[in-house]
Amino acid sequence: MSIAQSILPEFDQEMASTRKVLERVPNDKLDWKAHPKSNTIRWNASHLANLPVWTVFTLNQDSLDIAPVGGEPFRTAQLASSQEIVATFDKNVADARAAIAATSDAQFMQPWSLLRGGATVFTMPKIAVVRSFVMNHIIHHRAILCVYLRLNDVPVPGMYGPSADD
Fold it and tell me: pLDDT tens-digit profile of 26-79?
């Protein structure tokens, strides 16, 4: 079994769970935040919608500079509505899934680097970036968004079984 074949079922499950959470984001609470130092629901949901595209960045190039010297820094677009959030997520998941399916085991083992201003932040095999920096990162922000939903009395969907709201 190839790396792509082994990771796609996990990817599909986590993306389906994330989509269920994003579908619950209320348009009237997009600018709500739990604490002055916290990000808003919109920021977390927009970040979740965009994180799958990092799979494409990782698998189709050897590095990404998020703050290139003399260039524009990478910024997550702040999406306008829950519908736009879900649509962006769906497109990015489809692109990420296609990139995973098209990647050979040898390509997954190649190094990838995140750069900031030309300096290396980290370098890992591409498969490790997909698992940690993309999938685990998505799970982390999905959990934050679930807490935000709970604090706003929005029913939280079950992901690994039923939730208290199911």
Answer: 999 999 999 999 999 999 999 999 999 999 999 999 999 999 999 999 898 899
Q: What is the C-alpha separation between 131 and 7, in angstroms, rounded? A: 9
Q: Is the pTM of this model over 0.85?
A: yes
Q: What would the DSSP string read from start to end of 78-112?
A: --SSHHHHHHHHHHHHHHHHHHHHT--HHHHTSEE
60: domain CATH number? 1.20.120.450
Mean pLDDT, all residues of the chain: 97
Burial of 148 (0-12, 13-18, 19+ CB in 10 A): buried
Q: At what angle do helices 53-60 and 82-101 cross, to 10 degrees?
A: 30
The H-or-E segment that residue 49 falls in is: helix 41-50
Q: Considering the domain boundaries, does residue 59 fall inside one?
A: yes
Would you say residue 57 lies in a domain? yes
Exposed (0-12), middle (13-18) or buried (19+): which is 20, by Cβ within 10 Å?
Answer: middle
Domain enclosing residue 95, as ranges: 11-151
Per the structure, the count of domains in the chain is: 1
Between 88 and 77, residue with greater pLDDT:
88
Average pLDDT over residues 115-137: 97
